[in-house]
Amino acid sequence: MTTGDPAEEETVRLLRAMLSIPSVSGDEARLAAFLAEWMTGLGMTAWVDAAGNAHGVAGPPDAPTVLLLGHLDTVPGAVPNLRVGDLLYGRGAVDAKGPLAAMIVAASRSRTVRAHVVGAVGEEVPGSRGARHLLETLPAPDAVVIGEPSGWDGICLGYKGRVGVVYRVDKPLLHTSSPEPTAVEDAVAFCDLVRDHLRRHSDGTDPVSFDTAAATLVELRGDLGHAEAFLTCRVPPGFDFDLFERRLGGHSAGVTAFDERVPAVRRPPGDPVARALRAAVRAQGGTPVLKLKAGTSDMNVVDAWHVPMAAYGPGDAHLDHTSDEHIAVADLTRAVAVLDTALARLGGLLGAKATVGAGTAGRGAG
């Protein structure tokens, strides 16, 4: 059921089209081309860059630039693309095609900021190739909104960091009566070592708190002579990656490798982007909820710009990567309205800051 609101109809049409194009990490090219064409049709300047990221720009060229950074890729797994009442189902509906669709519609109508939307590649896999390409090729924007599911009334201020650990061990074959540990037993002992180190070097006592490090065993296979284990570790702000790698590298029975180092990020509640989003949620009749996430996003990467930043997007993050992934049309529509209002407020906040800075510079020069 639709309300007849043109923005709602536009957003639903866009998201359903996006959901019809599979875009598992590494296979985002068709969706990127589609979005560049769609954004051009909305009157935006659009292109696909060398990394495969889809870009769209709208708004006054001399206004402050707000980067709205979502991602194109999804995890594997089919979810039927269909609508059931107010719910839209499909792989990526929540993570994160829904947030990106809302960003595109809001950005296309921007009148107070130069709204630069990017659908990045490779967010769901180690390396964040699309976001890192932006760091290398774009000037720092004046502010960033990261497109991740926070709920239409939620604002995410931080994400844990991440490091993946791969452990491989080969041992001479021995009889099962031997007291020596087998290769697979050694891999299990290594997993215990990882968890013990993270436990000892965590500030929090709550195992799911933002200040606590934790490891998830993703894969373990092996036998008497050969074994492999892969763990993904979520780590808090200030985590000592060097100490972690030295500690695990000293486990002499096997070979340890690390796939990336992604520091945690945490922004204060007074961040200008968070303030603008909170006011926009209130304007839509909601009560803003500030959140910290145990996962990792492209916010961890582009935090290197050191500009105002927060994450926002419709959708229930508990549905990420599940076979029941879906988003409510009402939440999608509210998110567009929140982004409309937040961009307008950011235009005033960032413009005022630039004016004050220019005035101060002029007085100093005098």
Structural write-up:
A hairpin with a 2-residue loop joins strand 4 (82-84) and strand 5 (87-89). The protein folds into 2 domains: 6-159 and 265-356, Zn peptidases (Aminopeptidase), CATH 3.40.630; 161-258, 2-Layer Sandwich (Alpha-Beta Plaits), CATH 3.30.70. It has helices spanning 6-19, 29-41, 93-108, 129-137, 183-200, 241-249, 272-283, 299-302, 329-365, and strands at residues 45-48, 54-58, 65-71, 82-84, 87-89, 114-120, 143-147, 154-159, 161-170, 214-222, 226-235, 255-258, 265-266, 289-293, 309-312, 326-328. By secondary structure, it is an alpha/beta fold. It is built from 9 helices and 16 strands. It is elongated. The protein has a 6-stranded mixed beta sheet, with helices on both faces. Helix 1 crosses helix 3.
CATH top-level class of the largest domain: Alpha Beta
* Arithmetic mean pLDDT: 91
Instruction: Tell me the number of structural domains.
Output: 2
Q: Please name the CATH architecture of the largest domain.
A: 3-Layer(aba) Sandwich
Kindly name the structural category: alpha/beta
Helix content: 25-40%
Q: What is the terminal separation in angstroms?
A: 62 Å
CATH topology of the largest domain, which one? Aminopeptidase
Largest sheet: 6 strands, mixed
Determine Rg (CA atoms, Å): 23 Å
CATH superfamily of the largest domain: Zn peptidases
Q: Output the number of helix runs.
A: 9
Principal-axis shape equals elongated
Oligomer: single chain
Q: Reading side by side through the largest sheet, how are the strands ordered?
A: 1-2-6-3-7-15
Are there runs of 5+ residues with pLDDT below 50, and where?
A: 355-366
How much of the sequence lies in strands comes to: 15-25%
The topology string of helices and strands comes to HHEEEEEHEHEEEHEEHEEHEHEEH
